[in-house]
Each structure stands twice: as C-alpha cells, then as structure tokens.
C-alpha cells in the first residue's frame, strides 16, 4: 500500500499538482486517477525499474489495477474515519473498482493437458527408489513417505497445504457401509470404498471424500513404517495433532510437492516442468481432476463436485468445472 500511495503521489504531482494535497481530492480527481491507472504500464511512476525485467512497459494486469485502487480507497477511508481529512467524497463509491476490471478478476485454473497428466500418473504409479533425489547422506525422506505424498497429490485433488496437514489415520476403508482394513483379503480393492479425511481448510471445516484405493494403500504403507513422532501444532486450527507426513520430528514442507515431487515426476516421465499455461504446480492437478470428473462418461453434478472439492460455494466450483471442447462438441451435436 505504501508503494501504491507513493506511485499515486508521483502521478498527481506530475498531472494535477493543484490536487497534490489529499484534502483537495474530489470525486472527479478519483475518476481521473482510475482512468489514468487503466492506461498505465508496468514501470510508470515507480522509483526503481531494475527488477521489472521484460515486464517493463507492458500493460498492468487487472489484479494489479484492483490492488492499487483498493489501496487508495483504504487510505482515504481510514483518513476520513480518523478525522484526518474532511468527508468531501465517499471513497467506497468514488474509488470502487470498475466493472471492466472486476470482469477480468477471479481464479483461472490452468488445467494440465490429458497426455501430460497421463505421463505424470504413470511416473507416480511406477516410482522407484532410484528416482528419488539423493543428497550426500542419502535419501532425505523414506521411499514410502515420498510415494504416499506423490500419489496424494496425483489422486486426492487437495491443496498442498491440506496435504501437508493430513493426520495419521486419515484413511478409512468401507465395503457396503461396513468398516474394513486396507489389507483385507476378503474384499477386493476395487469393491471397497476408500475415504480420505481432509482437515479444516481455508473455505470450510473437516470432511471426508472418496479417493482411489491406490492412494489409500500408499498411505497405509507409509503409516505401517512411520516412526513415532511428536505432536505438531496445526497452523490453521491450533490443535496438537499427529501429522501424517512427518519424519525426524519435522513436518514435510508445503513447498515439497512443487520443489521436489513435481520435478522428480517430470524427469521420470520425460515431460517438461512447464507448458503453454505456465509451470506445472501442485494446485493445477486440483483443477485438472475437477475438470475430468465434470466431463466424465457419467459426470459428477456441480453440487457433488462442490462437496468433493470441499468448496463452501458452488460459485467457486464453477471456476474449476471447465467444460472441455470434446464435451461441448458432443453436446452441440446431440442438440441437433
């Protein structure tokens, strides 16, 4: 906010020096500044441009414009509330974000191409000890832990923060509504339901969701060899819990998937770590799995997908439930 206010100060001094004092601002001044901001480029009215690189001179993104408008609106709102400035205009209305900018805001899930995801799935399912990154002292994490983290990322559709905060005993097995064990010989894995207990997250409380049995078996394999660890404080709830992915009294970092797991899988699968939509990141599988479930032969409904993703609002799910061109073409043909 401080940088934004300095940028506004440089602009007003250059374009309208008579209104350089905040007490002289009016609704018209606010409208003039928003119009100027909409035409600004990266590097305009800043003090240093050394770190901007090839972005220098490019148009500002919608999120940047919205952030700068919000910063100035907060400044005038607080100054009027603290009676530092007279109430000559209403900041909430005069410095509202224009619809032309808000229309460009919102999550933009970057779905991974099917062929790339298929190779990553193959690499994860065929992961071997030799594929693990190795330091001078050997492997940093046990193979069972790495495989469990990898398959959780590939099959659960969860955020990296939620994966790092999974608790011991998060996997439950059921068959015909009755609990069973993951290594039961009486029930085939394809006939059983594997439920994953998701901890409280940024949009809701804890819940359970069905996942592929392969994921449940990988987590059970890690729990079978996991050494006893001290309890950790859940950073969201403040509870003392037994974190699933912890070793040597340290929790696995939320950045472990992006920094280690994804590069490892890309090397094994022979695919680049980035595509036309940007770097392959942990969150991209969440949108990809959601899109696949929404476009399957027997697709999930929007409300079922909302429950599976753990969204509080169906509007959030709509950002993830992207209709693929194949599904749209089929629906167009069947419409006659």
Major sheet strand order:
4-3-5-6
- Which of globular, elongated, flat, extended, rod-shaped describes the shape? elongated
Number of domains: 2
Distance between the termini: 54 Å
The percentage of residues in β strands lies in 5-15%
Largest sheet descriptor: 4 strands, antiparallel
Q: Average pLDDT value?
A: 89
CATH architecture descriptor of the largest domain: Orthogonal Bundle
The CATH class name of the largest domain reads Mainly Alpha
Rounded to the nearest angstrom, the radius of gyration is 25 Å
What is the CATH fold-level name of the largest domain? hpI Integrase, Chain A
Structural class: alpha+beta
Low-confidence stretches: none
The SSE string, one letter per element, is HHHHHHEEHHEEEEHEEEEHEEHHHH
Brief write-up:
By secondary structure, this protein is of the alpha+beta class.
Explain this structure:
The chain is an alpha+beta fold and 336 residues long. The protein has 2 domains: 2-102, no CATH class; 114-331, hpI Integrase, Chain A (Orthogonal Bundle). Helix content is 45%, strand content 10%. It contains 14 helices and 12 strands. It has a 4-stranded antiparallel beta sheet with strand order 4-3-5-6. A two-stranded antiparallel ribbon has the order 1-2. A hairpin with a 6-residue loop joins strand 7 and strand 8.
